[in-house]
Amino acid sequence: MPELPEVETVRRGLQPVMEGSRIVGVETRRPDLRFPFPERFAERLEGHRIISLGRRAKYLIVHIEDAPVLICHLGMSGSFRVETDESGHAPGSFHHERSKAAAHDHAVFHLAPPTGGPVRVVYNDPRRFGFMLFAENGTDQHPMLAGLGVEPTGNALSGELLGERFRGRKTPLKAALLDQRLIAGLGNIYVSEALWRAGLSPLRASGTISQRGKKAADARERLAFAIRSVIADAIEAGGSSLRDYVQTDGSLGYFQHSFSVYDREGEACRTPGCGGHIKRIVQSGRSTFYCPTCQR
Questions:
Q1: What is the pTM of this model?
Q2: Which end of the chain has the smaller Cβ count within 10 Å, N or C?
Q3: How far apart are CA 283 and CA 295, in angstroms?
């Protein structure tokens, strides 16, 4: 499933095309994705201008003038493709290649930008685990978004906050970091990467970093910094690949070449002087990659 940095690179890629554009037509080529399209989906969107394109955790949030807020999720295999009469490209940076097969094009937004010719934004999803829903009463009240934790992209995610959120918890540190009620948008790949950067084992009880004393305080500060930095680095890697937006072809994924532990089972740890090797274990049905030597 695309993680927060991938979704953010998609948002950044779609933003210059969608913001300010008027929706002149909407095609839904099947009645549903993961969930049915909302009733009168096309009718309620057509003719209205897109005000802004945002993100909350792994959700794209489309604010539309005089229309409900549109919530989009990419699911396992979803992606957007931008087409004009002259070219087409797919913004986003993914660990696994996205489909470009027209058979999986399930929704098409026909846009009239403030300047230039018409643009089509096509949603493609072979496995159809993504969805598009309306937030009739704002995003804070929508069941998909209500109760989400703090975003991992700013200074709000601090060592102090981690200490408060994890106090008394016996669940493994990795499981706690994946709890969307605590921190919104963290996924399997970047949790593994952040724990390696912080030198913390995914197996240790999450409450241990909430304990008193300098050692625990240092651990939670390292973890907060590692989370923020790994997300920022991944977004920057995707964002830098989108700087020449017109030429982006969708075959991206530059940050995957910088993984330090994820998908590197048996390889040497990159921590200077460590000498250990990356191990793969399974936690709650998901692969975890870490170095048993330097992550404690």
A1: 0.87
A2: C
A3: 16
CA distance 58 to 115: 30
* Burial letters 147-178, b for 16+ CB under 10 A, else e: ebbbbbbeeebbbebbbebbeebeebbbbbbb
* Range of the structural domain that residue 257 is part of: 159-290
Q: b/e string for 98-137 if b means 16 or more Cβ within 10 A?
A: bbbeeebbbbbbbbebeeeeebbbbbbbbebebbbbbbee
| Catalytic positions, written as ranges | 2-3, 58, 286
d(CA 199, CA 50): 44
| 281 in the same domain as 175 | yes
Res 239 pLDDT > 90: no
Q: Are residues 260 and 179 in the same domain?
A: yes
Dist. CA 183–CA 116, nearest whole Å: 40
pLDDT recorded at residue 154: 84
